[in-house]
Design a protein that fits this description.
Chain B: Belongs to the RRP4 family. The complex is a heterodimer of chains A (about 300) and B (about 280). With about 300 residues, chain A is an alpha+beta fold. Chain A has 5 helices and 14 strands. Chain A is about 30% helix and about 30% strand. In chain A, a hairpin with a 2-residue loop joins strand 11 and strand 12. Chain B has about 280 residues and is an alpha+beta fold. Chain B has a domain of about 55 residues: RNA polymerase II/Efflux pump adaptor protein, barrel-sandwich hybrid domain (OB fold (Dihydrolipoamide Acetyltransferase, E2P), Beta Barrel), CATH 2.40.50.100. The longest helix of chain B has 19 residues. The relative contact order of chain B is 0.11. The chains are: A alpha+beta (about 300), B alpha+beta (about 280). The interface between A and B is medium-sized, with 25 and 34 residues.
Chain lengths: ~300, ~280
């Protein structure tokens, strides 16, 4: 994920700044650009959120429920399908086929964080008829602008979008020739995604020189030799840690990076929880005022 | 009735918006004709000179003029030339014959110089130069044949939209704490610590060295502050020149450089700066 060039002296300037705990934008190594978030933006989806970091990194995540068939091995569960697309307007290098590699890398990372048991979601909720029909949550993300630390922003937006998602209600009827079901078009009968608050957030620590920073800018990303993506859930458990990049990380630095990322993730989870609660309050107010609330996306 | 005539102040148009149906005016850059009406092809500001109507786009790549001071980054080393990213539609060209080489300011470039071009500039290096000429295809030819120009060190790059940078007599300025700002007309701005040695006194090899000087905590803080001011001004579409930057810097002194990243802090800082001017 290296976009663009950097000179020897620029790299040296950034590295020495990290040593002094004073980065090029005045932040310390543990300072995080406060994420700005909006929810429920996309009319055609069942849940959506947009996250911006420091006015440059900008991502939009949309979730849509679709009817499908479960995997043969997990017949009693629904599925998640993740895709990420970087808009060519985000960076000159992403025009044409330039974004393909980055898209796959980000989709894979996001998918690893959200699918499987570490996401904390109850996938049994998405089952309609065992071994026959289930909901597939299509999680589609678009990167509108690149300002560094995209994966953190993606998971931040995805977590909020999951909290915003409602799965349409279904009625299963037993018929002579088997089972059939009907989807309810009333949004009030659609259920919030269970355990959406268990979903982890990701904080990435970037190794630069002999030190590390959190929430790197694009220039700092170019200077970093290794990255450590750390996913942490609200219970304070580290759900996943993945190292990327060509550099090595000393054991002592690894522990410091993990610790710093975990602390920051706990803080961000609190910040986001407040943002989500605020959104749900305004949604409830709208409903009590009798304003129209959108229907499940499958009926549009 | 033209919009430019009836309204005072700048008229903003969006793409595909009818500017005028008057048939007596001529259409210029950024416009096209559709059923006798002149329609804008870009989002920007309407400008009228006598009968000629043009639209200056708000967001566009840099279109240089001869004599412009530009800051660029080397993207490619080629045969007797470097390709330089100058934020324009095409990369600029820096010819080996357009740089000062160590040992004699105006000597002929030999074959050995050609073989060691990467010793002078290599991919990724930053430089400041002047637009010298334009090629047939519109690519810009730049030169560094003055000690004012050359390799950049000791600092960071800030990128702003080129339309915001105002032309002025000088584009090299020194702000507080010995921090120098080079405002490239192409929207690339270099903020650095001023070199302790003037280029005239440098050894030939030092001109192209890839080594930073020691930069202290306070100098770094000032650099960060100036960078954040520049980004804040660019976000709010405030035009950039030395006077405005200095005013913004002065107004920002009440806050730490880090606090300037918060949108509301930056808002008040720039409000005070612009009213003081």
């Amino acid at each position: 994920m290296s976009l663009g060039l950097i000179s020897v002296v620029e790299r040296d300037f950034v590295e020495r700044g990290v040593d002094l705990d004073l980065r090029t934008d005045g932040r310390g190594r543990n300072d995080y650009r406060l994420p700005r978030m909006e929810m429920n933006l996309v009319a055609q989806s069942d849940g959506s959120a947009r996250c911006q970091l420091g006015g440059s990194t900008d991502v939009l995540v949309s979730i849509r429920c679709e009817l499908g068939q479960p995997e043969p091995t997990t017949g009693d569960r629904g599925r998640l399908a993740v895709s990420v697309e970087c808009a060519p307007s985000a960076s000159q290098q992403l025009e044409g086929r330039g974004a393909d590699e980055l898209n796959t890398e980000l989709a894979e990372a996001l998918s690893r964080a959200l699918t499987g048991p570490r996401s904390g979601l109850n996938l049994r909720q998405l089952c309609i008829v065992e071994n026959m029909h289930c909901w597939i949550l299509n999680i589609d993300a678009i990167v509108l602008d690149l300002g560094g630390n995209v994966l953190d922003a993606l998971l931040y937006a995805a977590r909020a979008a999951l909290a915003d998602t409602r799965v349409p209600g279904t009625q299963v009827q037993s018929l002579d020739e088997g089972v059939d079901f009907e989807v309810d078009d009333d949004i009030n009968h659609a259920a919030w995604l269970e355990h959406a608050s268990n979903v982890p957030l990701c904080v990435t620590a970037y190794k630069i020189g002999a030190g590390y920073v959190l929430d790197a800018t694009l220039t700092e990303e170019l200077c970093s030799s290794a990255r450590l993506h750390v996913s942490v859930n609200p219970a304070g458990q580290v759900c996943a840690a993945q190292k990327n990049g060509y550099g090595s990380i000393e054991p002592s630095l690894l522990i410091t990076m993990l610790q710093a990322a975990k602390e920051k993730a706990m803080y961000l989870l609190e910040v986001q929880e407040e943002q989500i609660q605020q959104h749900k309050r305004t949604l409830l107010e709208k409903q009590t005022r009798g304003e129209s609330v959108k229907r499940p996306s499958i009926f549009m | 009735m033209t919009m430019a005539e009836t309204m005072s102040g700048p008229t903003f148009v969006t793409r595909a918006q009818v500017i005028t149906s008057d048939t007596s005016v001529m259409r210029g850059h950024g416009t096209y004709q559709e059923d006798k009406a002149i329609v804008s092809a870009v989002a920007g500001v309407v400008e009228q000179v006598n009968k000629l109507i043009t639209v200056r786009p708000l967001r566009a790549r840099y279109a240089g003029e001869i004599g412009d001071v530009v800051v660029g980054r080397i993207t490619e080393v080629g045969q007797r030339r470097w390709k330089v990213d100058v934020n324009a539609r095409q990369d600029g060209v820096l010819l080996l014959s357009s740089v000062n080489l160590p040992g004699g300011v105006q000597r002929r470039k030999s074959e050995s110089d050609e073989l060691q071009m990467r010793k002078f500039f290599t991919e990724g290096d930053m430089l400041v130069a002047e637009a010298q000429a334009f090629f047939q295809d519109g690519a810009m030819s730049i030169h560094t044949r003055s000690l004012k120009y050359g390799k950049l060190r000791n600092g960071v790059l800030v990128v702003v939209p080129p339309s915001l940078v105002l032309r002025s007599r000088s584009h090299f300025h020194t702000l507080a704490n010995g921090i120098e700002v080079i405002i490239g007309l192409n929207g690339y701005i270099w903020v650095c610590k001023r070199a302790s040695k003037a280029p005239e006194q440098m050894e030939p090899d030092e001109l192209y060295a890839d080594v930073n000087e020691e930069i202290g905590q306070q100098e770094r803080d000032t650099i960060a502050r100036i960078c954040n001011c520049l980004r804040g001004m660019a976000d709010r579409q405030i035009s950039i020149d030395y006077t405005k930057l200095a005013a913004a810097y002065e107004a920002s002194l009440g806050h730490s450089a880090k606090e300037l990243l918060q949108a509301n802090v930056m808002e008040t800082v720039l409000d005070t700066a612009m009213t003081r001017m």
